[in-house]
Amino acid sequence: MQAVILAGGLGTRISEETHLRPKPMVDVGSKPILWHIMKSYSAYGINDFIICLGYKGYLIKEYFANYFLHMSDVTFDMQNNSMQVHQNMAEPWRVTLVDTGENTQTGGRMRRVADHLKPDQPFCFTYGDGLCDVDIRKLIDFHNAQGLLATVTAVQPPGRFGSLEISGDRINHFNEKPKGDGGWINGGYFVLSPEVLKLIKGDATVWEKEPLQRLSEQGQLSAYRHAGFWQPMDTLRDKVRLEGLWESGEAPWMVW
Question: CA 91 → CA 35, 64, 94, distances in Å?
Answer without folding.
Answer: 11, 11, 9
